[in-house]
Fold:
Amino acid sequence: MKAPPPTYSKFRDVQAELAKSGAAIFRDADGVDSLVIRYPYSIEYIHSYAQDSPFFLALAEGRLRGSRCTKKRCAFVFATPRSHCMVCGAPTEWIDLPTTGRIHSWTTCHFGGEAFLKETPYNLALVEFEGADSVMLARLKDAVESELYVGMPVEARFDPNPKYSITDVWFVPRK
Amino acid sequence: MVTGGVTKFAKAHPAMDFRLMVKRAYDYALKGIPNLTPDRIDGTRISYFSDHFSRQLKAASMVQDYLGMNPKGSVRIEWGGATGGECFQAAYEAVASGRMDVCLAAGYETMSRVATWKGNEFIALASDTNFDFPLGGFYTGYYALMVVRHIYEYLRKTRFAHIADEREAQRLAIEEGTRIMSMVSVKNHRNALHNPYAQYPKRLTVQDVLNSEMISYPLTREQICTMSDGAAVAFLASESVAREFTDKPVLVKGVGCGTDTMRLADRPFGKVPLLPHEKPEDYAGLEYPGVHSFRAGRAAGIEAYRHAGITHPNRELDFIELHDAYSSSEIQTYEDLGLCRYGEGYSFVERGDPFLKGIDYGFPTPRAGAMPVNPSGGLIACGHPVGATGLMQGVFAFWQLQGTIRKHFGDGALQLKGAKRGAIHSHAGTGSSVTVTVLERGFR
Ligand SMILES: [Zn+2]
Structure:
């Protein structure tokens, strides 16, 4: 026989108890008791970048790649690559993007998903490139909120220790 | 539509799991409708957004089971933030196709099961996990990117065009834009003071909204909807049987749905798809949608209005319950749905059009009542349990059109006098899918 776990009327206290012992009883305003338990979950995925792989491999070499529609009359240039054209459906080919561009829009995040809270505040920017028909989302570093504006010239920086993630590239204000 | 029910949306409902929440909304909907017995229900459409929040795959089967609906036909609906709106339309299609005479649309979400920032991470998994998610896992950041560009297009280039210093002009435009966005937040929170189902009714001021914690510049906490637990149901019936259940049915007059690229970065810079009352020269030189507007919302509006025979939405609709996950997206949506032209969303708020008559907002609203938007308080004040939200809008719009707001809210302040036609609008991640449904009073 095991005694029931402690009862709390504040949900905050229930959460604290879960962290400690893994179980608690929550008594709500109507006097209804609910047994609440900790219920963890974690998983490792085997993730293939598949047709996007050349982009991430290029980042690790310090190159920024986009893609261009192979149909002559379309020739849409994607600054975030896609292996098939969203306009006409034709296959695209890999191209090198300039490593300089301009801010199309931006924000400074003071919060984020749980995994990213420790990185706050961080800037996000959509970057436009000369000759490209779409833009690219990236982190923007070495600049604070009050310095950022639409149209600001920026240039790419690459992680010398690449993790094969979109975070292997970021932008900084162009000097 | 013949009846509906909603549970009060709350931060957490530990004493009810998702099945019991739906059951409560279901029982509320059936109360006082003796002819709508379970044997009259031909099937169901059940919606919830996230298997991560549920941590129970095929949870819709357990709702079906709990309600005693087996062995009737059922389908689970999921379409991001537009899950509830899509569920409503799926039930409409089941009836309109002749497959069913009575279809139950039921939706729920239980977001309290993880901490808030973990919840944000789950929601952000509805962005491209190769290119977008690893940058911050944060939807508020994406909407902030969109509104910064919206302000640039529509305030920087107009009201602040005379200022030569680019940075200064953009700063002033953002200040102006966020002040006006805060008025939307004040509206929705104050409307909700009269809605007992709302999670966060508050008597805020513009200053309170601006002073609340910065989440992702320029969006502050009070401009953003929260995580909620809640459920909602709507019963749709064919015109041949609807009057057996109520003498005040509401007609589903038009449905529309639109989509856009998952990544903001892929949105094209093309031309505006026009509504019947607009002309190409209205938008000369405007690159559309870019990241400033929701092309999916425009497409959904075009389809729904065409279906409903609406040519001037602003004149022919009496109100809209729209998906204000952010005060910014409410303003962007006015333009998508043609309540005003692209670029006029901020003036639309300042003139007072989307406000209610007879409610004190703490600032002048000269044209209040012209086009009430989110009379219920919207997502910002009611909460946003994703799979239930679009259905909640359907239920609130249904009560508006029936003229039964006082009966269900215990307060008649939000009842729009003589409302004959309204719309509901449900929106998924950065506008990747949107539904619009036009509802009309189906009785004299
Ligand atoms: Zn093409």
About this structure: Residues 11-21 of chain A form the longest helix (11 residues). Residues 53-173 of chain A form one domain. The two ends of chain A are 71 Å apart (CA to CA).
